[in-house]
Amino acid sequence: MSSGSKGQGRATVTLSDVARLAGVAPMTVSRYLNQPEAVREPTRLKVRRAIEQTGYVHNRLAGALKSSRTRLVAVVVPMVTNPIFSDAFQAINERLAKAGYQVLLGVSGYQSEQEQELLEVILSRRPDGIILTGTLHTTISRNRLRAAGVPVVETWDLSTEPIDMLVGFSHEQAGREVARHLLGQGYQQFALFAVDDPRGLRRADSFSATLAEQGVSILHRRVWQGLPSLAQGRQGLSELMDSLQGSGQGPCVVVCTSDTIAQGVLTEAAARGIRVPEQLAVMGFGDMAFAAHTFPALSTVRIDGALMGQTAAMMLLERLQGEVDSGKTVDIGFSVMQRDSTAANNRQA
Hints:
This protein is of the alpha/beta class. The protein has helices spanning 15-22, 26-34, 41-54, 83-98, 112-124, 139-148, 171-184, 198-213, 230-244, 259-272, 305-320, and strands spanning 72-77, 102-107, 129-133, 152-155, 165-168, 190-195, 218-224, 252-256, 280-283, 300-302, 329-331, 335-337. α10 links the parallel β8 (252-256) and β9.
């Protein structure tokens, strides 16, 4: 393989590399890619294994010069309805547009396998760069991204083994800081509501572990599949109140891995006549646009999505201009926002 230069970082895997690994002629690999039925099954298996191992992606832009740029950057997010992701995407789009790039948006739905399928299509179009959400990818995706030779920026997380460049924050640290903050407010009874997003679950586990270090356990933990919703928050609080009925437990704080779930908890509390924070406290995550305007105002963890997007776009542009090498990491941090939904001085004694 040819060695990558500064600004490109990694070598691009070629059809000849695949042929060499598979032990066949380059023409056979080309035939497999264009007319697989014309290749015998044992040979197809060898070529397919070599493609998966190297991460090679067939270039469908036949005849395009290797040195030409598409002026296309692909951005993959888990969902577009969550404002913290849409804010980041908007910032990315605006910054790259000023530099003359078009942005292709892909939605993975928090599924690494769906992201893998998206990346295969994206890479076949030979984008100049890729911006991903999170650091959890399939092995095949990692191989393909490293083999493609295009700059990659992973966002919304930190990792000791980034694919290329990285901008995000520590979900484990966020979970710890929320636990310490609420313990410092005097809370001792906790419930935890989450969806099965891997990053959210890491925050939840870190939150629980920090409580355990202080001898405090979670009274009620509920995890849903799929995307966060108000309905989950309402359902979760109904289940929590049923489990606490007649227990004599003191005021409880419900910690949610999403502001959307937390808003559902506030809605159900209002429907039941439960006073927040006097009888029940609520903590969210994300500081979405509505969080400061709920009643009462929602305590949460603020992540600056716009800053995340701007930073990712700038890192990518600097890389394309040859100004930064692979391995750059930026931690943008987070802020715990104390608002009325966890106002300790309003709690019942």
